[in-house]
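Quiz preparation item.
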């Protein structure tokens, strides 16, 4: 396997580096904010270098390696003493190459699958400006606590816009998705993303990553023929995720697989602490397999004791075999 990430080098995720790899503005702000928070706490989170920007994109609209740590904190405003986070989301269409033979017409939020990882802090006001240019009616339904009128179940027709505004509560790891009928199809074609609400005082510093499991029903038989983490089948098998030995890793994991009742998340050669739905600051259990029904999500924390390559995948092995599998490459450090 090609060593494309200069794995031996030890670097922090600096502003310069983020810019070099071309993350969008909101992501840069997020990364820098995180870095400043880390500096204040005098705790160093070590994040291996990101892959080169010419890494394969494969039609998900964004390199899956970028999806991992690309947190969109929105445009921050102050109104009447409150923090407002404004997000602009456009629904559109694209095509993804699922393997060398199969291309699939997808529906996207901001030209990517999964949609952007939206992130706020509990108590912020979230304002989502949604424009539908997707050719069909779509909507954005957020999990969390909010009034009925912003629940996002009303279809927004092609060419129209909607504003979803609500308080960010409760803290945890949530999701959003299109809620237009048939929902299985709208989610299966790519209209979903993660919505993280941080606790008021945050969480301990860690190398944080997003992993979303999803399926593709390419022949519309209500079964998935392909599966993936973060949009692209088998991407992290071909491009292992570099992490450092003994570094605390915090995964935000979401199961967005339709048609299959449940999927587990299994990590090789390690155990992780589970924070169910991200709703606690103390973990409820320690395991190496956690079961997730559709739309369930958890925060998982671990560190690797030994260097090397380690798989992660649902232990429904047919799902894993059809593309929902990846590798961490643990880089040793003295
Ligand atoms: Cu839709």
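Solution:
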């Amino acid at each position: 396997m090609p060593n494309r990430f200069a794995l031996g080098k030890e670097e922090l995720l600096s502003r310069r580096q983020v810019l070099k790899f071309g993350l969008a503005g909101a992501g840069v702000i997020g990364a820098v904010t995180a870095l400043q928070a880390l500096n204040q706490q005098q705790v160093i989170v070590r994040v291996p270098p990101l892959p080169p920007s010419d890494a394969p994109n494969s039609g998900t609209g964004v390199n899956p390696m970028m999806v991992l740590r690309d947190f969109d904190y929105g445009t921050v405003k102050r109104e009447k003493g409150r923090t407002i986070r404004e997000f602009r989301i456009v629904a559109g269409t694209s095509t993804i190459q699922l393997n060398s033979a199969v291309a699939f017409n997808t529906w996207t939020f901001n030209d990517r699958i999964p949609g952007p990882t939206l992130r706020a802090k509990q108590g912020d006001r979230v304002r989502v400006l949604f424009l539908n240019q997707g050719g069909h009616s779509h909507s954005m339904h957020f999990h969390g606590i909010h009034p009925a009128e912003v629940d996002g179940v009303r279809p927004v027709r092609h060419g129209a816009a909607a504003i979803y505004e609500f308080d960010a509560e409760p803290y945890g790891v949530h999701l959003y998705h299109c809620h237009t009928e048939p929902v299985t199809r709208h989610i299966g074609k790519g209209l979903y993303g993660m919505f993280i609400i941080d606790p008021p005082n945050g969480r301990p510093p860690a190398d944080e990553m997003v992993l979303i499991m999803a399926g593709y029903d390419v022949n519309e038989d209500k079964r998935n023929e392909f599966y993936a983490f973060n949009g692209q089948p088998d991407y992290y098998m071909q491009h292992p995720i570099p992490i450092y030995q003994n570094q605390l890793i915090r995964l935000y994991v979401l199961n967005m697989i339709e048609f299959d009742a449940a999927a587990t998340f299994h990590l090789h050669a390690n155990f992780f602490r589970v924070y169910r739905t991200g709703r606690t600051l103390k973990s409820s259990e320690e395991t190496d397999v956690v079961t997730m029904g559709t739309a369930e999500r958890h925060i998982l924390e671990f560190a690797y004791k030994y260097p090397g390559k380690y798989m992660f995948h649902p232990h429904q092995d047919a799902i894993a075999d059809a593309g929902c599998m990846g590798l961490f490459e643990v880089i040793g450090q003295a």
